[in-house]
From TrEMBL:
Ranges in coiled-coil conformation: none
UniProt keywords, alphabetically: Membrane, Transmembrane, Transmembrane helix
Protein name from the UniProt record: Major facilitator superfamily (MFS) profile domain-containing protein
Membrane topology: Multi-pass membrane protein
UniProt cross-references to Gene3D superfamilies, sorted A to Z: MFS general substrate transporter like domains
Keyword Membrane: yes
GO cellular component: membrane
Record flagged with keyword Membrane: yes
Major localisation: membrane
Domain of life: Eukaryota
Compartment annotation: Membrane
Alphabetical list of InterPro entries matching this protein: MFS_dom, MFS_sugar_transport-like, MFS_trans_sf
Stretch list, region Disordered: 580-599
Length: 599
C-alpha cells in the first residue's frame, strides 16, 4: 500500500500499521474520492474502508525556539562538534599574533657593530677597532669602515641604515601596520555582518595575509616595506575579530567566556612560536616573513571543508534553512537530534527576506546606524572603545618595549610569551566564576600598578644599567623584568576579556561591527605605542609611567559598563532592549542596567 495517500481532503502518510499522519489539506473534486490519476488497487480499497480521521494524528505544532534555546536544550552547550569547530576556528589566531608581532625581530636595532679592518674606526665611541655598543656610536663613522655583527640582512634597520638622521623611519612600518589594522577592522567588521559572513571573511583575510606577507619579504626599500606592512595589517585584522565571533556564536551562553579564551590561547601559541622561528632566521629578516606567510594559506584548506558558518548570522540574514542545517550538524556530531517541527525564532524584520542578499548591505548599515542612535548601545560602545584604546596601547606597548629592558631580545620575548599562558589559563577559570566587569577592571588595575612599579626600579637601577650599556654586558634588573612580566600578564588578561565582554554587550546584527570598533580603538592605541617605545630608549621611566596611567584609566572606565555574565546573546538591538527592560523590571538588582537601557 502506498505510504502517501489522499483521503477526504487530507494528505496522509502511514507511520506504522495502525497510525497515519496528516501532512496537508487539499480541495478534491468530491469527498472520499481520489484524483483520477490514482489507480492503485489497494488505494481504491482504502476508499471503501471506514477510516476515522480522529484517529489520524494531527500535524505537530511548530516548536519555535531561539538559537540559544536550541543549543541549550537539543544540541548541547559545548559538545564534541563545538569543540572541533572552536579548535579549527581559533587556530587562525596563531597567524594574527605572528603577523602583529613579527616586527619585534625584523625591525630590531642590531645589538653591536664592528670595524671591518684594524684601525679603520679609530676615535669611534665604541673604542678603537673592537665591537661597538649601540647604533648611536657609529653616527660619526664613514660608510664602509664598519659593519653590523650578524650582517646587514639581520633586520630592516641594518639593511637600510635606519639609524642616526634616519632613525625616525624605523618606527614608521610598525605604526602603519596598526593603522592598517584599524582600517581593516572597520572594513571586515562591516562585511562580516553585511555580506560575507564570518567564515568567508576569515578565508579572505587569511589569503590576503599570505599575499601581503610574502610581498613584504620582497620589499626593495623602507617605503615599500612600510606600505606593505600597512596592507598586511589591513588583511590580518579580519582574522581576529571574525574568529572570535564565529567561535562564540556556536556555543551555549555559559561557555562563551571560556571559548573566547581558547582563541587567545592560540594567539599566545603564535606569539611563543615567533622567537623560535626568528632565531633560526636571525641572519635574514626576509626569510622570517616568507616562513610566516605560508601558514595562513595552508589553514584555508582546513577552513573551507570543515568549518561551518555561524547559525546566528544565517538566521539574521533570513537563511533559516541553512541555520538549521548547521545546528543539525552540530547535534548529529554530539549524538543528538533536533525535533522535526523545530522552527528558529528570528527577531529580524521579515521585510525583503527574499531579497536578503541584495539588501544585506543596507540592512547592516541601518543596524550600525541604529547602534549610534540607541542611547544605551552608544554609551556602551564609547566606554568599551576608550577602555580598549588604553589596553591596546599598554598590551602592544609592553611587548614592543622589551628592547629597552637590557636583556637578550629572544629571551625577553619568550618570557612575555610564557606569561601569556597563565594569563589565558587563569582568565579561562576566572571567566567562569567572576563577573566580566570586575575581572577586566582588576586586571587593568594590576597591569597599571606593575608598570608604575617598573618606573621605581628603573630609577633605582639607572646608573647600573647605563654602566652595563657602556660595557655591552646587556644585563638589566631582574626585579624590573619580573614585575614587567606580571604587568604584561595582567594586561594580556584585560586584553582578552575586553573582546569577550564586547561580544556579550551587543546583539548579532551589530556584533561584528561592535567588535570591529573595539578592534579599531585597540589598534589606534597600538599605533601610538611605537612612538612611546622610541622615547623610552632615552627615558625608560616615562614609557612605563604612561603605560601604567592608561591601564588604570581603562579599568576605571569599565566600571560604568553593565554586567553580562550568563546573559543571553540577543539577535537585534530592539530585542535586546525589550528583553533587558523586562528583566530589569522583574529584578531590583538590575536597576542600573534598566536606567542605561532607556533610549
Amino acid at each position: 500500500m502506498p505510504n502517501l495517500l489522499l483521503y477526504n481532503g487530507h494528505g496522509i502518510r502511514r507511520e506504522d500499521a495502525e497510525s497515519w499522519q496528516v501532512l496537508f489539506e487539499y480541495s478534491p473534486p468530491a469527498l472520499a474520492t481520489f484524483p483520477p490519476t490514482m489507480e492503485d488497487e489497494e488505494a481504491q480499497r482504502l476508499v471503501c474502508m471506514n477510516i476515522d480521521l480522529a484517529q489520524i494524528e494531527s500535524p505537530p505544532a511548530k516548536l519555535e525556539l531561539t538559537v540559544d534555546e536550541v543549543l541549550e536544550e537539543y544540541v548541547g552547550s559545548f559538545g564534541f562538534s563545538q569543540l572541533l569547530h572552536v579548535f579549527l576556528v581559533s587556530f587562525a589566531w596563531i597567524f594574527d599574533s605572528q603577523n602583529a608581532l613579527i616586527t619585534i625581530f625584523t625591525d630590531a636595532q642590531p645589538s653591536a657593530w664592528r670595524c671591518k679592518s684594524p684601525g679603520s674606526c679609530i676615535g669611534a665611541a665604541g673604542g678603537g677597532g673592537g665591537d661597538g655598543g649601540g647604533a648611536a656610536s657609529v653616527c660619526g663613522l664613514e660608510r664602509g669602515t664598519w659593519e653590523w655583527v650578524g650582517g646587514n640582512t639581520s633586520s630592516v634597520i641594518a639593511e637600510w641604515g635606519l639609524i642616526c638622521d634616519r632613525k625616525f623611519l624605523a618606527a614608521v612600518p610598525a605604526s602603519l601596520f596598526f593603522l592598517g589594522s584599524l582600517l581593516g577592522s572597520a572594513v571586515f567588521g562591516h562585511l562580516a555582518d553585511a555580506r560575507l559572513g564570518r567564515k568567508r571573511s576569515v578565508l579572505i583575510a587569511c589569503v590576503l595575509t599570505t599575499l601581503t606577507g610574502f610581498l613584504t619579504s620582497l620589499s626593495p626599500d623602507v617605503w615599500t616595506y612600510a606600505f606593505l606592512r600597512f596592507a598586511n595589517g589591513f588583511a590580518r585584522s579580519g582574522i581576529g575579530i571574525c574568529c572570535l565571533v564565529l567561535s562564540t556564536e556556536a556555543v551555549g551562553r555559559k561557555w562563551r567566556g571560556q571559548v573566547g579564551q581558547y582563541g587567545f590561547f592560540f594567539f599566545t601559541a603564535g606569539f611563543f612560536s615567533l622567537p623560535l622561528i626568528a632565531y633560526q632566521t636571525r641572519n635574514c629578516w626576509r626569510d622570517l616573513y616568507r616562513i610566516i606567510s605560508i601558514f595562513p594559506l595552508l589553514y584555508c584548506f582546513l577552513l573551507v571543508p570543515f568549518v561551518s558558518e555561524s547559525p546566528r548570522w544565517l538566521l539574521v540574514k533570513g537563511r533559516e534553512g541553512e541555520a538549521l542545517d548547521v545546528l543539525r550538524k552540530f547535534a548529529r556530531l554530539n549524538g543528538k537530534k533536533l525535533p522535526s517541527n523545530l522552527v528558529l525564532s528570528n527577531p529580524s524584520p521579515p521585510k525583503m527576506v527574499g531579497k536578503a542578499e541584495a539588501g544585506a548591505g543596507s540592512m547592516a548599515a541601518e543596524a550600525e546606524e541604529s547602534l549610534w542612535k540607541t542611547r544605551w548601545a552608544a554609551q556602551r560602545m564609547i566606554l568599551i572603545m576608550l577602555a580598549g584604546f588604553g589596553i591596546g596601547f599598554v598590551y602592544y606597548g609592553i611587548q614592543l618595549n622589551v628592547e629597552n629592558l637590557d636583556f637578550n631580545l629572544y629571551f625577553t620575548v619568550a618570557l612575555n610569551a610564557m606569561m601569556e599562558i597563565p594569563a589565558v589559563l587563569l582568565g579561562s577559570v576566572l571567566l567562569g566564576i567572576m563577573n566580566r566587569r570586575l575581572l577586566f577592571s582588576q586586571s587593568a588595575f594590576l597591569a597599571g600598578i606593575s608598570c608604575i612599579l617598573c618606573v621605581i626600579f628603573a630609577r633605582e637601577n639607572r646608573g647600573g644599567r647605563d654602566a652595563d650599556k657602556s660595557g655591552g654586558s646587556g644585563r638589566g634588573s631582574w626585579a624590573q623584568l619580573i614585575i614587567e612580566g606580571v604587568g604584561f600578564m595582567a594586561a594580556s588578561m584585560a586584553f582578552d576579556v575586553s573582546y569577550i565582554y564586547c561580544v556579550e554587550l551587543f546583539p548579532t546584527n551589530v556584533r561584528n561591527f561592535a567588535v570591529s570598533l573595539l578592534r579599531q580603538a585597540v589598534m589606534l592605541g597600538a599605533s601610538l605605542a611605537p612612538l612611546l617605545v622610541a622615547v623610552g630608549r632615552l627615558r625608560p621611566s616615562l614609557s612605563f609611567l604612561v603605560f601604567g596611567s592608561l591601564s588604570i584609566f581603562s579599568g576605571v572606565l569599565s566600571l560604568w559598563l553593565p554586567e553580562t555574565r550568563n546573559a543571553p546573546l540577543y539577535e537585534t538591538l530592539k530585542q535586546q532592549e525589550e528583553e533587558e527592560s523586562l528583566s530589569c523590571a522583574s529584578d531590583d538588582s538590575g536597576f542600573e542596567l534598566a536606567k542605561e537601557g532607556r533610549s
